[in-house]
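Our consortium's second objective concerns turning raw sequence data into structural hypotheses that experimental partners can test. To show how far this objective has progressed, the report includes one record in full. It was chosen at random from the queue rather than selected for favorable results. The single chain below, 300 residues long, was entered without modification.
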Amino acid sequence: MAAPQSPIGSRRRLGAELRRLRTAAGLTLDEVAEQMTCSTSKISRLETGKGIPKLPDVRELMRIYGVTSDEERDALLRLVRDGREHGWWESLTEGVTPERFVMDSPSRYPALETEAAALRSFDIAMLNGLLQTPEYIRELMGSLLTNHSAAEVERLVELRGKRQRALFDAEKPLRLEVVLDEAVLRRVVGSPELMADQLGVIRERSLLPNVTVRVLPFDAGFHRAHIGSFVLLEFPVGTADVVYVEGHAGESYLENRSDVDRYNAIFDDVVDRALSPEATREVITRYQQDYATRGREKRA
């Protein structure tokens, strides 16, 4: 099944073009906002792809920037129209209450992930969402979103399941590279039976040509990455990469080149210390067998 598409890419590409045009025109954000008689933050949000573009605004910006080429005008207006489309995830996130410190904006991460070409993820507390089974997701959501109804949780379980389709896209599958701290395998979510099933899914997906899973073993010691889990979202050429970080202060999206470079360096260092994909599958299999045994003993 083909992976769903996202309008966020069109918004970010439009923003990059508007920023390029403003820079070429030698104008600051404040100067453009003054000519547009709007706030500086509005122009900034358009340039970062966070605002929903409006045709009159972009036409006025093209006038200010001196865009005269019909081809360039048509391309920009096409990005505006594409950027105003609804994302596939909105029917599942609409009405879901944000949870401070856990899920500030239910729709923002799926929007970015849908547009990404590759993800690099370091996980110290729970599995990357693209590797989780519905039962594992349900257990996590029940623990994290204590103020949400069962119906809301089920919508989020469905949302995560649809996100996983990107790994199996026949034309352009999402590339996923994950490093799991061994603690993620040791930590029981739900029950030993659930964990045995979950680890079986990880092992199967690690065999996909576009998926690489490594374990950072306990004997590798402490690493600077242990400060917190993060995901590096890599986009097609022309669109800036993003670092997604979760923490007790909420969700953060880092887009500065220096921040992205720093997290890439941290991830590369973790990869060097982690087990190979083959050795990782052996470790996962041992944990899976142990959980299966514990499950049988519990039922006996």
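The partners drew two points from this record. The chain has a mean pLDDT of 87. DSSP finds 13 helices and six strands in the chain. Both points have been shared with the crystallography group to help prioritize constructs.
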